[in-house]
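Quick one: structure tokens for this chain, please?
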Amino acid sequence: MQHRLWTTTFTYLCLASALGLTGCGGGGDGEDTVSKDPGRTSTLGTEVSLNDFDLLTKSGVWRTDVDLDTDFIFDFEYGSNVFHIDGYMLAFSTVVSEINVGASATTVSYCDASGSELVTDTTVNGEDFIGEEDANFFNCNSAITSSYFVVSDSQYRIEMHCGSDRIGAVEMRQLSATPTFNQGTLSFGSDQYNDLDASAGVCGGTADSYVELTLSDQGLGLEDDTATYAAVNVAAPYGDSQINFAFSFLRTVTPGTYSIVSALEIENEANQTAVNISSPEFGGSDAAPDALKGISGSLSIISIADRQASGTFDIATGNGTNFNGSFSFNLE
């Protein structure tokens, strides 16, 4: 089975960065490229069989680091035209999840505004992350293979290969044996919704990627492009459910002040961010919570690193709601 954890990492990185810059004229200009941090995923551990890769049998808060360093190809429809796109991607993502192992079932909760996932199949394998159907996307002429490593009782790693080339790795590390998020703080005041001051149950995540694209022109004057995409999110308990603030950028995030816009613009990428605030408290369901889109305001990033961030925000949304607050998280 493909656990939702992969949807929140692979899709977050691959599709947001690749598709986000092709549809209507590109993404960032690539000046703020991602530096490859060899410490993001390790090369340690003992290779084991899939049967001995028993990650989902242990309760706790688990951090998942994903890195991709690979070529990719896909066809992109825009209007009546179909473009063939060849690309290269260097991308990283860090997310956390709560794994709660019960007598008859295991539940996994993610750092977002949606509910828990009941997992009846506790096997985690490489095909949960990159399957046979992804071989074409990754421009792999042979089958994608996976290797499994146990570093310790609290650290696991999967490596994915196309032939002899490593295209990505997923490393999972247990931060706590207690399956309750406790990675930061989130507080805000709102003129239409309940205020929040949370120091328990808080979590966060980061992602950044650098993409190069080669486009088939189709006579429309499109040019090859490069782009940087980054994201920061923070979530906390809110009412009877969760709330999640998801900020996205067309550049590598550094400390500073960013204007909140309804849609990111290439020309002003250096000082802009887009934000979606989602929660079942706004409507929808636990599985598909409604979201409010920020249209103006500011975000001040105080500090930022691979697995931690802090900042303050003043957000006006499209429905006339204002959120003013601060956040911090540390996933080390």
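The chain is about 5% helix and 55% strand.
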